[in-house]
Amino acid sequence: MIEITNRAAAELKALMEDAGKSGSAIRIYITGSSADVRYGLALADNINDNDVTMENNGIKIVMASDVAVGFTDGSIDFVADRTGKNFIIQNAESGTCDNCDECGICDAD
Fold first, then answer.
1. How many angstroms separate the CA atoms of 103 and 67, rounded?
2. Which of 17-26, 32-41, 97-106 shows the lowest per-residue confidence on average (mean pLDDT)?
3. Given its phi and psi angles, is residue 82 left (phi above 0), alpha (psi -120 to 50 degrees) or beta?
4. Least packed by Cβ within 10 Å: which of 11, 72, 95, 102?
5. Can you tell me whether residue 91 is helix, strand or coil?
């Protein structure tokens, strides 16, 4: 389960409303290199048959199946301080994946 904090849910809902996409889904995707996997968020304009979907705190989450294999438990939070505003995406499974043949996230041999 991916938990979305109340702060993150409120900010995501406000961003979707501002974009005229209230009720849309949020896609979690991978950015960075195989040595430094990081996650990003975007509005999910298209949901494919192979995507994994879930919902938490009123927000629908979408991930490609290869991303979902390595990200089954985590959280999305939102922080705002004098340095800026950011979503914090944490994967409880980071560093513990043993599904290299299946997920392809880290490109391990």
1. 7
2. 97-106
3. alpha
4. 95
5. strand
96 neighbors 37 (Cβ within 8 angstroms): no
Phi–psi pair at 12, nearest 5 degrees: -65, -45
- Strands 74-81, 2-4: pairing kind: parallel
Q: How many CB atoms lie within 10 A of CB 87?
A: 19
The residue extents of the domains of the chain are 2-93
CATH code for the part of the protein at 2-93:
2.60.300.12
pTM over 0.90: no
43 within 8 A of 60, measured Cβ to Cβ: no
